[in-house]
Design a protein that fits this description.
The complex is a heterodimer of chains A (521) and B (337). Chain A is mainly α and 521 residues long. Chain A has helices at 10-35, 47-80, 87-98, 102-113, 132-155, 160-168, 173-201, 205-211, 219-229, 233-258, 277-299, 314-351, 355-366, 373-384, 390-432, 436-463, 467-472, 480-488, 493-514. Chain A contains 19 helices and no strands. Chain A is globular, with a radius of gyration of 23 Å. Classes of the chains: A mainly alpha (521), B alpha/beta (337).
Chain lengths: 521, 337
């Protein structure tokens, strides 16, 4: 029935997957090998540990819930009102917000909603940015845009026939939603919620800065502390196992729950019901509010441009920008290709109806997301330092680790579209006995926008990297985020703000160029 | 335990053989001295580039800085590399990490006479050499805060909005912890609780706190007594001041040391000696924004206007012993209700 055969096509893909697992494996091996201990059970007997575990779970669950709750109506607005203004710019903004550097976000939020923030007077005397509300604001700001984009793309996949049928049967709006829309987004909503949960579960600089004190502590902070200030590797490992287990289990569960909604045979778009007057107003209002929410913390930073410090020198800034671009390219190109490659066996498993296998492969290809990033990089640092000359291997490791960290995002971008391709064309390709080159051309053309979006996301994420560069980077060969860190850590806050804006501007430009909406679809 | 001279003389023959090998391998290269330090020290505005130029002018060597993220990262790199480390000198560990750094067993005595050091430091350690220091202090904007508090107790009891750094992730945060411990002793839990009531937030690192403060996010931010000098010299702004507290201030002393494994012990010692020379000491304060460790240094006038607190605090040994305990107390007491 299916034309795809495993055979040799799978070998490079499985090798790539093994490579990914090895990257994580080496990191843990590095830590275990150095400390001589796999874990330190004493860590789990400390009530403090349960306190921060509970807080990590709570803030992550709330952040994920809110991001999905608010993201869904915005995605619907984009879908039902195709004539929205600045739609493409909005979608680009969404990608940009997702990769916003911490310093920029914190500064923006403080300027807007802090004690003397622009909007604070409107919020009454009891308003306080710091606390759970601040954490949730920041996390929703970072993740809601991602949810919006993903759900919007998902909605685009509702087949026209479904709408035509609904129209024919004169289904009322609620029933339409129940029968046509909800089944399409349900699975994706869950997966996205899980994804945002994992990202927020791993967050800590934002949590601390906006949380207001030690009551807002996540597991990731404890890992940071153990790895860095205490250099207590067994403790760090124990915490990492806990985090890995929780996030990994959740991911695996969601993979099972969220699968199976991609078997769409055609793409829709032309038969989307036009909302009535009130519906249109609602969608327009939601869209406007979301755009304001995303734009204000960024716009409030612009006055920085008015006072450019005399000490600012352009050349190092441009040099750093160039370095960042090179590094990000070196990471994003292989990340995108590898993402496509490791999806191969998953698609095959899907076609063959081997769902367990597909889930396992899915989990393996995105597992780096659930492993604490700090553990990955420090693990490799411990492993590499005595074995390799960092002067030579540093850049390679920066690329390798960023590749491992960005790949899951690229996989996530490509997966739905590729599964859709298979559902639609696999039998046809088999029937036509297309040569692999021909099929590949067809597939890449089909991927189009998704491929560019995956590439853009990997590029942006790699461009924003500080954590990996801090350990492995050659500091004479500064990247832009590192320069921002340098500015900020030597009192040069204005330069840091300017450089952040430059980074943001360039990222915005890249997104604009790369992420063209699939108008042709 | 440390026998600097015995070590030096026994290392010297090895040194000459090695340098001969080096000479044969590449006849034109001068001896290389590798110094591990933190990144902002070697950034273009940090002391690194100027110090390198000044030292290379007198040593006939190639001084190579390797920048780690921060002081703790230098120590961790040493811990991981162990005997295989390529560092000849480490620079930028602070006195709070002295005990842990010594415990690596990699540090050799500096063999630098300490007579020139400022008496304020009362420095006697045979292994670690101070190259700058600073007092932790709460910085305020005098255009907003007209009557600054004059003691830690007054600050704690006030309702001024305060931002400080987390002692689990930052050096100034640990500094405040020692400060509170030195001033309040057993009563520190209650004081932390009191402070938490008007703490705006606690940040991961110094720059988050400081930039939030500059954006008007707080009345006081935990920083250094020398912070105002930066604003005067680089920005021409004179409204930022450090509050002088009656109880005294805790200091952070930044240290350099050389390594037992160094192939360049003489050069390393020469570099340490250079670090506390008037030439180097005139560079460091205006690039690293800390205070010089010797007294006779020509500095911009603003340095004489900085507060001169009485120094209080603990020995590095006492800090190492109680740190864990104090952090645990902080993290349960400083929680907001």
């Amino acid at each position: 029935m299916h034309g795809y055969r495993g055979g040799t096509g799978q070998i490079p893909a499985l090798a790539g997957l093994t490579g990914l697992v090895l990257i994580t494996g080496v990191a843990f091996y590095g830590l275990i090998g150095f400390s001589g201990q796999v874990a330190d059970p004493a860590t789990l007997r400390d009530p403090y540990f349960y306190g921060i575990l509970w807080f990590s779970l709570k803030q992550a669950a709330l952040s994920a819930g809110l991001a999905v709750l608010f993201g869904y109506p915005v995605a619907r607005a984009l879908y039902y009102l195709p004539g929205l203004w600045f739609r493409r710019a909005f979608l680009a903004l969404c990608l940009l917000c997702f990769v916003l550097p911490t310093l920029v976000l914190i500064t923006g939020l403080v300027l807007l909603l802090g004690h003397s923030g622009r909007l604070s007077p409107l919020l009454g005397p009891d308003w306080n940015l710091y606390g759970l509300q601040g954490i949730l604001l920041a996390h929703v700001f970072l993740n809601l845009p991602f949810v919006v984009r993903a759900l919007y793309l998902q909605l685009l996949q509702i087949p026209d026939t479904a709408w035509r049928l609904a129209l024919l049967l004169k289904l009322p709006a609620l029933t339409r939603w129940q029968l046509v829309e909800w089944p399409m987004v349900r699975g994706r909503l869950l997966v996205l919620a899980g994804f945002v949960f994992v990202l927020c579960f791993n967050s800590f600089a934002v949590v601390l800065a906006l949380g207001g004190g030690p009551q807002a502590t996540t597991l990731e902070l404890a890992i940071y502390q153990a790895l860095k200030y205490d250099f207590n590797l067994p403790e760090a490992l124990t915490l990492a196992w806990v985090q890995f287990t929780i996030a990994g289990t959740l991911f695996a569960l969601l993979g099972r729950l969220g699968g199976g909604s991609w078997l769409v045979l055609e793409q829709g778009g032309s038969q989307v019901p036009v909302p009535g007057r009130w519906g249109g107003l609602w969608h327009g209002g939601v869209y406007l509010l979301c755009a304001l929410f995303l734009l204000l913390p960024l716009l409030v930073l612009l006055p920085v441009l008015a006072h450019i410090p005399a000490s600012l020198r352009l050349l190092p800034l441009l040099q750093a920008l160039w370095n960042s671009l090179l590094l990000a390219l070196a990471c994003a190109v292989p990340a995108t290709l590898l993402a496509w490659l490791v999806l191969w066996p998953q698609r095959l498993a899907q076609l063959q109806g081997r769902h367990r296998r597909r889930q396992l492969l899915e989990w393996l290809s995105t597992h780096a997301l659930t492993a604490p990033a700090m553990v990955l990089s420090v693990g490799w640092y411990v492993f590499a330092l005595p074995r390799l000359r960092l002067e030579h291997w540093g850049p390679v490791l920066v690329v390798l680790l960023n590749l491992a960290l960005t790949l899951p995002f690229a996989v996530q971008q490509l997966r739905p579209r590729l599964l859709q391709f298979d559902a639609q064309y696999a039998p046809l390709c088999a029937g036509l006995k297309l040569a692999w080159q021909e099929r590949l051309t067809l597939e890449w053309r089909w991927l189009g926008g998704s491929l560019r979006a995956a590439f853009a996301l990997a590029l942006l994420l790699a461009m924003g990297d500080v954590a990996v560069f801090a350990l492995f980077g050659d500091k004479d060969w500064t990247t832009l985020p590192w320069l921002i860190y340098r500015y900020a850590s030597t009192y040069r806050m204005q330069e840091a703000a300017l450089a952040s804006l430059l980074l943001l501007g360039v990222c915005g430009l890249l997104v604009w160029v790369l992420d063209r909406e699939r108008a042709h679809a | 335990m440390n026998k600097p001279f015995a070590f030096k003389s026994s290392a010297l023959p090895g040194l000459s053989v090695l340098s001969m090998a080096a000479v044969m391998a590449s006849p034109l290269s001068a001896a290389e001295l590798t110094v591990y330090t933190y990144d902002s020290f070697v950034s273009e505005w940090g002391p690194g580039p100027q110090l390198e130029k000044a030292f290379e002018a007198q040593c006939d060597c190639d001084l190579r800085f390797v920048g780690a993220e921060d002081g703790v990262s230098i120590l961790n790199r040493l811990r991981i590399e162990g005997e295989r480390t390529k560092a000849d000198v480490i620079l930028g560990i602070d006195d709070g990490l002295l005990v842990e750094t010594r415990a690596t067993g990699l540090i050799a005595a500096h063999a630098v006479p300490l007579d020139d050091l400022s008496p304020v430091l009362a420095w006697q350690d045979p292994d670690f050499l101070p190259f700058d220091y600073g007092y932790f202090a709460f910085v305020y904007d005098s255009s907003r805060v007209k009557e600054p508090v004059t003691s830690l107790k007054a600050l704690v009891d006030s309702d001024a909005r305060v931002i400080y750094e987390d002692p689990r992730t930052s050096t100034p945060g640990q500094g405040l912890m020692l400060w509170m411990q030195a001033v309040y002793g057993d009563q520190s839990d209650a004081a932390w609780k009191q402070l938490a009531r008007h703490t705006v937030t606690v940040t991961k690192g110094w720059w988050e706190a400081y930039s939030m403060f500059l954006e008007g996010g707080a009345d006081y931010v935990l920083s250094y007594s020398s912070s105002p000098a930066y604003h005067v010299i680089t920005e021409g702004k004179d409204q930022y001041h450090a509050a002088l507290f009656d109880e005294g201030h805790v200091a952070q002393v930044e240290l350099a040391a050389r390594l037992k494994t160094s192939q360049q012990p003489v050069l390393a010692q020469q570099f340490l000696q250079f670090l506390i020379s008037p030439e180097a000491q005139a560079i460091i304060p205006v690039t690293n924004w800390m205070l010089p460790v010797i007294d006779e240094v020509k500095l911009p006038p603003v340095f004489s206007e900085l507060i001169r607190p009485r120094r209080i605090g603990f020995t590095p040994e006492a800090v190492a012993e109680s740190r864990k305990d104090w952090i645990a107390r902080w993290r349960s007491a400083a929680v907001k209700d």
